Each structure stands twice: as structure tokens, then as C-alpha cells.
Amino acid sequence: FVCPQCAGKLQFLPDGATLRCGFCGFEQVVANGAARPTNSQFGEGAFEQDFSTALAQAKGHLAPVQMRTFQCNGCAVEFVLSPEAISLTCPYCDSTYVTETAAAQDIIPPHVVIPFRILPEQAEKAIRVWLKEIGVERPQISPIVGIYLPVWTFDVGGEIRWGGQVKRGDNWVPVSGNYLAFSNDVCVPASKKLNGDMAKAFAAFDLDGLMAYDGRYLADWPAERHTIPLADASLQARKQVLQELRRNPRKLTLEDVRNLKLGSLGLVVESFKLALLPV
Questions:
Q1: pLDDT for res 117
Q2: Is the separation of the CB atoms in 84 and 1 below 8 Å?
Q3: In sequence order, what are the residues at sequence separation of 6 or more whose Cβ sits closer than 8 angstroms to the Cβ of residue 177?
């Protein structure tokens, strides 16, 4: 990402659309090359990929591309770097590296990305305001590092056979039925470093802001490489749909159900996509 006017370094601005040279001020719009389609032939919404085809022939369905990768020596996390990134601060252990030796590998690129909208300085200001509100004086804050984190999203649907017991008078009587389920954009973290709290945070992202992936969005922002395979993540997505029904059995029947049993043979993953979310 070299400025065509002065050969300076272009940086991605948190307006979601622009690269700017830090020396001469030249600007280049990214969004023109990352238009958002209105629909997809698979699943619900834009950018969806056919799940069955991807499992059958992953390399043919998702063509790998040459991308620079770098692994932190401190915590073993692997990052995807923009072509011209020369340094990296690991957001997990604060280790700082010069990345001139980063290797180029054939990896499957993300389908979509939500570009950064705020600067690290704005994030630090928000954290300091929050700490002041809860009574923390003179806080010591680690360097604020922006990073794109990978997440799989799945459209999951199908027929679920269920059975259990409901109360009739003083007795619990057996009941059963079929439930037609559909869950759009079930989010599953694509990195083994991300815990359950981060998974909940992913669920709060407004995915309407997704843009088609463009490597220019990674200018000055590292992206963690996905380490959880598509097949493993799809099993977790199905599990999350069933767990949600167990927590809310009234979706199946308006009555309270005990000893609930769910049959998941009819529950299938219809489509998926790999997204990078800004943190």
C-alpha cells in the first residue's frame, strides 16, 4: 500500500472507506472495490457460501490466495498481514515485532469484513472514561491495539423432533412434536484463542455492516488467522441452536417442559461465511 504520488505509506482510515498517505495526504477510496451485493444464491442474506459444496471440495470452492502470515513467539497466535505491513504488536501478549521475515502462504481468504470505524486513541479515551465512572484513579493501560478477529457464521435450519413432559393438573404427561427451526448468522469464533465471553461479544455485532473482503482493509491493522476448521465450527453452530431451544423450551410449546429431548438429525447447516470483525 504505497502512495502513488510520493511512495509514502498508505494507512486505512476508520471511516470505513479510505486509504490516506501520511506524508502528502493522497487519498484512495476502498469501498468502490468492495460493493455489497443484495442477495446470495445460498442461505439468507448476502455473501453466503454453499456449505455442502465447501465440505466436498474446499479448495475448489474457496480458492486459496497468497497472503503474508506471521506467528507470535510469545503466545503462538498466527496473524494475516497486509502486503506492506512492517511491524506488529501482538494484542495478546504485547510483544512487538518487525515483520519483514513474514512468510507468504496459500490460505483461504475471508469472504467479508466489517471495517474499523474508530481510532485506537478514541478507544483508549472511552476506556479511561469508563474506568473513571467506576472509581478507578490513575489507571495503567496497556497499549491499545486494533485487530481483526475471525468468525464463522452459519445459517442453520431444519426439522427438530422433540419430546418431554408437561403438567396436566397434578400429573406430568408425555408430549411430543416437530419444530421447524431456522437460525440466521449463528456466530462461532474461528480462533482457539477466543473464549466464551468473546463469542458472546461477536453475537452483538451488527452484521449489516459487512463488506466484501478486500486486502486493503488490513492496512495498519493485523488480522488473526482462523484456526478452527469449517467442519468443526459447523458442529458448534448446530450445538448452539439446540442449546438455545433448551434454554427457551416455550418456543416448542407454550407450556413448561421437563425432561426435554431434542432430535437433531433433521437440523442442517445450509450456508456459511468467514468474516473478520474489528476489535
A1: 84
A2: yes
A3: 161, 162, 163, 252, 253
